[in-house]
Amino acid sequence: MNLHRTPVVSALSAVVGVALLGGTAFADKAPDGHLPSQVTAWAAAWNGTDPNQLGSLFTSNGTYTDEAVVFTSHGRQEISGWKARTDTLIDQVHVTVTGAYQSGDHITIESVYAGHIKGAPKPFAVPMATILVLDGKQIASDKDYYNLNAVLTQSGLPTDWTPGK
What we know:
By secondary structure, the chain is an alpha+beta fold. It contains five helices and seven strands.
């Protein structure tokens, strides 16, 4: 496997690029403790119970792509629907932001994605990288990168498991 072309390595390369090009790095353990407002709102929406809270963070034609399951939602309604579907499949869905890096209208988020797939023997907690592209204060696109096989393995499910199987 060529590690230089994997999505997570590309996302992490973007983080290094931000540092080298003079972007601003934020982390939840930074001295001032401040994260970009879009990051705190995004995490609160994922950790909340109202699916529309996530959709409202996006532009009207925004996109949300879950690269692990190769699915893209278009527009606020579909993005809200993605959050609602996630909540029906995974109990206690939670995102813990461990760092965020911003350069212009791009934000890279490092986090831990956790939950308990309904019917699975065990919960999961995996690293995730998210790239947000902003349009003003709203999110124009979101791409999430995490290891689906790690989610399934930690959950005690076969790596070919799909909902309803």
